[in-house]
Amino acid sequence: MSSRLVLLTQIASAVALSACTGAAPQQPMYDVTEAEASWGEAGPPMGALWSSSSAPETQGVIIPAGFFARVYARIASPRSMSVAPNGDLFVTSPARGTPGGEGGGMGEIVVLSDDDRDGNPERHTFATGLADVHSVAVRQGFVYFTTGATLWRTPYTVGLRAENPAIREQVLTYPTRDDTRWTHGVDVRSDGTVFSTVGVWGVSRACTARVNQGEILRVNTVGMPAQPLVTGLRNPLYVRCHPSQPLCLAAELGDDGGATWGALEKILSLDDAMQDVGFPCCVTQGRETPFNGGAASCANVTPGVATFPLSDTPFGMDWEPGVWPHPFNRSLFVALHGSFYSTPRWAGARVVFGETDAQGRPVGRFNDFVVGFGPSTPTLRRPADIAFAGDGRMYLADDRAGLILWIAPSDLRRH
Fold first, then answer.
1. Looking at residue 57, what DSSP letter applies?
2. Residue 20 domain flag
3. Is residue 92 situated within a structural domain?
């Protein structure tokens, strides 16, 4: 039994929405072709269609034809997500105000379970009293999560929905500097190596002394000091590791004041060799900032594996697990949080996808997948994170709207 999706865009809806907001139409870009879903030799699952779920439908969500979106949960300021091996969705809700103007959540880690597989989750409080919680990663028998000063982990067994705080352990303490950001990212590579991020509030300036740089830290052994793997960063807010390949990516946010001289946002590949991304002296490899003055060479800085215009603001990302059809199959999906400075607010907020090589690195251009975000839209405001369940559903967190959606092909079946 094959699954056929016609990859047409809802252009009329996009035009209607743009007429309400005053913005130019945002139209997802695809080849208009039919595509066979890659179900493998066993064929597609034969359960009920996910599209028959009673989960609430959404309004104003512009996605490709052949897909649908449903409301999964309403959580104040959902900032980071991670899918457990049994499909439970872990979500952080920071109470402290986050960069980008969000916050006001519950100061908790929430677990959304769906044991009866109806698309309507049950809600559990995994951990509370965490005003400055930011990122979460359920990996290899632990739940890792970040607070402003500390990376923690707590033992996890499949189905656990409330931690025992007495057995929570400290993985590392973050360096403290005058302009260090408290919103750290975390994930764990398939070999058990832990990566976590430290951003700064700095801007590009004279390069006589390179102080107050952001870093990505590598933890090979819990209890041992973390080692900087990547330096020369401004704000590497999110990090995501591939579920099966030895690849981790981080999103680096560019200099807010660099619009006139070409500052960039980037996705970086976290290889094992020490890397320098060049901040605050270099835009990217071979390109100096106007403030460099020849003080620092940019010839050998690490370029991104993908770049975005300044203020697109790449946040969370994840790989499609191999269920959706081409060109989405195994693509990297990225939540672009949009501009804090635009009028109207959040210009550029959308979800994009890019095809990848066999190792999961993005290749070529990124195309729009979900548009329709903004201050005057009926449902969506700003996407913050993406997480794929193994069954092919994509979870999308909107921290401004306080909403989590799930999105799937119309003919995806439960199994």
1. B
2. no
3. yes
